[in-house]
Design brief:
two-stranded antiparallel ribbon; 2 domains; 17-stranded mixed β-sheet; Diaminopimelate Epimerase, Chain A, domain 1; alpha+beta
Length: 293
């Protein structure tokens, strides 16, 4: 069987500084790769996510968006934040005349708008309207994490939220406690297995006005930036008055793994309904390469 070559780009997302932020591999033309091969390639890249663009004719893409699939090292995802931003950023450079790139993901259509900020291209995705799920007992979560109950901020509910992927938002009282938190994926997984449908835990703490510090630990380690969770957090923050409606806040993540990331978030509130969840940031290109199969 003849060798096949597939070009890819390696991007750092939610940062304008190369070698920071969250890493992403984007395959601009994945036609010819089977589902199993996409999963194997994602495992080979060994990043938190790899995206595969499946180009279609111009009319179809204009009407239905650009078809993109997202894989972790273990599974295909319906949606993820930094892969959406990074993939759209790459497509924007191929289509500079467009101010908005619409991706057709497994979760549906996600638009990403672009503008220049401080001389650099800034992208902002609009995620699906949030679905607010169950609330969790602070005492149970504290016990699962092995921290004193007093370390969690009981002024805010621990609640599962989804804008395409579910995350359970856990608020800490102090950023210092969150930075020093030592918890294993096994501990987190044991708790999540007892509360099905809660996705992953997303730890946050206030770090000044309109600023949050965040961490997210999952089966592939600690995530430097979690755009899907940031959207859930934005919806949660606006619902519970941590952020004012449509006020842009900043979530800083990845400091503990030396991959600092800056995620800009905002959401609209009408009565008790949260809509128009937006998550944005910058992207830095790092590598152009090819995979030979």
């Amino acid at each position: 069987m003849p060798a096949r070559e597939f070009a890819f780009v390696h991007l750092d997302v939610f940062t304008s500084v190369p070698l920071e932020g969250n890493q992403l591999a984007v395959f601009p033309d994945a036609r010819g790769l089977s589902d199993a091969e996409m999963q194997k390639v994602a495992r080979e890249m060994n990043l938190s996510e790899t995206t595969f663009i499946l180009p279609r004719d111009a009319e179809t893409e204009a009407n239905d968006g650009v078809r993109v699939r997202i894989f972790t090292v273990e599974e295909e995802l319906p949606f993820a934040g930094h892969p959406t931003l990074g993939t759209a950023w790459h497509l924007k450079h191929q289509r500079p005349e467009l101010s908005e790139i619409v991706l057709h993901l497994n979760v549906g259509h996600v638009p990403v708008r672009f503008e220049m900020r401080d001389g650099k291209l800034f992208g902002e995705m609009r995620q699906n309207d949030p679905q607010f799920g169950e609330t969790h007992q602070h005492a149970r979560v504290a016990q699962a994490l092995g921290v004193p109950l007093a370390e969690l901020d009981e002024n805010f509910p621990i609640q599962t939220v989804s804008t395409g992927m579910p995350f359970t938002i856990v608020a800490f009282r102090q950023t210092s406690t969150l930075r020093e938190l030592r918890v294993s994926w096994q501990q987190i997984a044991a708790y999540l297995q007892s509360v099905q449908g809660s996705g992953f835990l997303y730890f946050v703490a206030r770090d000044g006005e309109r600023r949050l510090h965040a961490r997210m630990i999952f089966y592939n380690g600690e995530d430097p930036a979690t755009g899907s969770a940031a959207g859930c957090c934005a919806a949660w923050a606006v619902k519970y008055d941590v952020l004012a409606p449509d006020e842009q806040g900043l979530i800083e993540q990845g400091r503990e793994v030396r991959r600092p990331s800056s995620i800009y978030v905002r959401a609209t509130k009408a009565g008790e309904t949260i809509t128009n969840v937006r998550v944005g940031g910058h992207v830095a290109p790092v590598i152009d390469g090819k995979v030979t199969l």
